[in-house]
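Below is how a single chain appears once it has passed through the pipeline. First comes the sequence as given, then the structure the pipeline wrote out for it. We keep one example in the README because the format questions we get most often are answered faster by looking than by reading.
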Amino acid sequence: MKLSASLAVILLSLFNIVWAGDYFEPAVLIDLNEIEGLDPTGFIPADPEDLVIPIRFVNVDEARTAISNGFEFRGDGVTYSDISAEWNPAFPWDWPHAVELGVFPPYFDLGTFINYFFFSDGVGLAGLTGMSGTGLPADFDGIAYFVTLHDAIAQSGGKLVIDSSYWLPSNFWLWSGVEENVYWGGPYLIPGPECHECEPYTTCWPQPWTFKSLENDRLLNIIVHDEDNDDVILESMLVQGKIPPYTEARIEGDSIVTDCFSMKFIGVSGWRPWPSEGIEEPYTVEYDKVDGSHVVLTGIFTTKAIYGDVTFDGQVNVDDVLYITEYFFKGGPGCQLWGHAMDEFMDIDANGRVDIRDLQKLIEITGI
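Resulting structure:
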């Protein structure tokens, strides 16, 4: 189902988006009019559905011989099972596309690339021209690729935010000949079904949770939606039945929010080991109301492990190689998790042991 025209206009006005004729610099846009998989009213459906999101390039002035863009998808009350991406087969992006179309030479003769590894909740795409490619044409205006969120499902009042992300360590979107970050029209908001008389439900954030920034980013937000907030005894709130919140429960906007230590939250779950594809498990938040009733809500917590990221900065790079080298040869510390969890994250080749072969595997992953 395509997004209704009226809703597209609302969303476009919310984010001050203008279309190609108004641009005077290269741009990347989500084509809100063409998102497939939405329900007849233009919202993310309440039952699992693949959302196919077209991403549009608008180029001006000159051909771009190298491009690199990243996208992240944050769901508040919206979940999906996986992300995939593909280049639009209507254009000769690389040699396989050019051969299929019978158009030569391709835009990027050195190839096009799709990267999920560095994007815990998104995807990065890039293209590179060598001697024979044309680069992205100066007058290009079309759908460059399609990103699919598989089995997307929205709770009442949920929303999906589509934003830019970076292919580290560049920290900006690379288009050759563009000195600053390429213009990005987002973030874009795609809503779930509206709710008027909904039952309370809970979500947690960030999702999926990754093991990174352990010193500064240990808190997991637990959120209660669609509750009569004035009737809740905030100090009675518990997470997982026995974890008191790290901070007192509070009202933020229309929701009740509290926090708990993410590591403690994971620790009581008994999850061992953490598979690299991630874990999706239920959690509970409960509280008392002034009328004497007791409410227990169940939500879903998702975590992902980035094996090889022994420094826990969300990346696998030369810093991890140096860190694990210090561990093996100079008595340096292991990764900053307790007990067996430390061994799991340093067992990069997944053979059940932490040894020099893990360093070899990490060097292979990073390509240094």
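The chain is about 15% helix and 35% strand.

See the next section for the split statistics.
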